[in-house]
Amino acid sequence: MKSFEVNFDGLVGPTHNYGGLSFGNVASQSNSQQASNPREAALQGLEKMKALMDMGFVQGVLAPQERPDVAALRSLGFAGTDAQVIERAAKEAMPLLVASCSASSMWVANAATVSPSADTSDGRVHFTAANLNCKYHRSIEHPTTSRVLGAMFADQQHFAHHAALPAVAQFGDEGAANHTRFCRDYGEAGVEFFVFGRSAFDSRYPAPQKYPARQTLEASQAVARLHGLSEEGVVFAQQNPAVIDQGVFHNDVIAVGNGELLFHHQDAFLNTEQMLAELHGKLAARGGNFQSISVPRDQVAVEDAVRSYLFNSQLLSRADGSMLLIVPEECRANPRVWQYLQGLLAAGGPIREVKVFDLKQSMQNGGGPACLRLRVALNETELAAVNPGVIMTPALYDTLTAWVNKHYRDALRESDLADPQLLLECRTALDELTQILKLGAVYPFQIN
Predict the structure, then answer these.
(1) Which domain of life is it from (predicted)?
(2) Per the CB 3.0–4.6 Å rule, which of 258, 306, 341, 429 could disulfide with 247?
(3) C-alpha–C-alpha distance, residues 2 and 319, integer Å
(4) Is 250 annotated in the active site?
(5) In degrees to the nearest 10, what's the CA dihedral of 250, 253, 255, 259?
(6) Among 101, 331, 371, 426, the one annotated catalytic
(7) What architecture does CATH give domain 3-67+102-447?
(8) Average pLDDT over residues 197-208
(9) Residue 311 and residue 257 in contact, taking contact as beta carbons nearer than 8 Å
(10) Whole-angstrom Cα distance, residue 429 to residue 434?
(11) Among residues 158, 161, 179, 250, which one is catalytic?
(12) How far apart are CA 365 and CA 25, in angstroms?
């Protein structure tokens, strides 16, 4: 049976703004308070989805969240009508209003961790929504994320959904941004690679000193247990604390994997050689031939990797077995990174092509191509069981483009977040979107 790795890209929400909310994310903090363009951001994301569809990849869409999150503001003591809640929050606690308006759910690499049916004990595809409890503006996402994923992957014969882990520091879980999978074929048993920044209970693991390590070993282990993964099919590895302190807030800022290949920076991990040997041995036991490409620090410094998002790229397998690397325009703008990529192509290794996309609106807020997609490996039967409304087609692309142009503003500043009309615009847009994507009632305003 044929299998696919489907990329479900996050659709940028109508409140896309530069709030500078993510401590440890250099781009997010450095562009704080600039005016954003939600319409352009959403259209840039849709253009990437269409381009991958046109190249023959199966492409899906993951809906954004309702923002501002009035219920979250109410839980913090703001009362009255929706408009009064927003007005009072703007007057008394603007940072909380900004957080409640964040469109960060667009980065669906943080939506969940996904294990394909070939790896799990019950033969179903497993999803665990990420609690994202390191940052308040993201910690409020997982209830809606769970409902949206449940509406997309509803068939319980093929899909299993788990609630987010306890929302405490010891179980900080950032989803697929710290998880990848290696396999000979997407439909065969593979090796799932969990990367953590610190341990909550074991002091032998060093921790960063400047920025927080968002993923814990204990969270990764819990997800592996929930998904019914075997010891033979799992490798846990620690991020290098020194690179976290240089702005590598997720592993997907310093490494990307696909198929049998790991593309990573020389300084990405601790105990790198031991980790690579474990990956090689476990994948070999499952019939695979693990390979790695280590980018030397003397060719691309960590700072260049963070600023260009070289590793926050999509590594895609073509039908002929070669790989395509999808990178943001910022890689071409960085001379050292672009020189490295040209040398990589000339070397004739597994990565045979690099394609550049303009994702400036997302990049300025700290998210590149890899942040914008959640990968789900599916066989033909499972793909047929996915809600067809979320699979990209030329007609859906046209519909969503028209939807964005109809509902989205072309400029948004922090002061605009205090406008109650923005909430009405968002709800109107999302109500229409759930009909387009055939999701049913997934948003609080549709349920309550």
Answers:
(1) Bacteria
(2) 306
(3) 12
(4) yes
(5) 90
(6) 371
(7) 5-stranded Propeller (3.75)
(8) 94
(9) no
(10) 9
(11) 250
(12) 9
User: In angstroms, rounded to a whole number, what is the distance separating the alpha carbons of residues 318 and 331?
Assistant: 22
Give me the half-sphere count of Cα atoms (radius 13 Å) on the Cβ side of residue 132. 26
**Is-contact 100 68, C-beta < 8 A?**
yes
Give the domain ranges of the chain: 3-67+102-447
Question: Is it the case that residue 219 has pLDDT exceeding 60?
Answer: yes
Which residues are known binding-site members for substrate?
19-28, 110, 137-138, 214, 252, 365
Cα–Cα dist 263/178, whole Å: 14
Q: Which residues of 128-164 are buried (b: 16+ CB within 10 A; e: fewer)?
A: bbbbbbbbbbbbbbbebbbbbbbbbbeeeebbbbbeb
Structure tokens at 86: 């927003």
Dist CA 87 CA 387 (whole Å): 38
- Binding-site residue numbers are 19-28, 110, 137-138, 214, 252, 365
- What b/e string do you get for 367-380 counting C-beta neighbours within 10 Å, with b at 16 or more? bbbbbbbbbbbbbe
| Tens digit of each residue's pLDDT (9 = 90 or more) over 333-392 | 999 999 999 999 999 999 999 999 988 888 887 788 999 999 999 999 999 999 999 999
How far is CA 348 from its chain centroid? Answer: 29
Task: Provide the residue type at 95 as one letter.
Answer: P
Catalytic residue among 174, 278, 330, 414: 174
Give the DSSP letter of residue 127: E
Handedness of CA 316, 194, 156, 148 (dihedral sign): negative
Distances (CA, A) of 73 to 16, 49, 99, 303, 434: 18, 33, 10, 37, 24
Which pTM value belongs to this model? 0.95
Contact between 345 and 352 (Cβ < 8 Å): yes
CA 128 to chain centre: 13
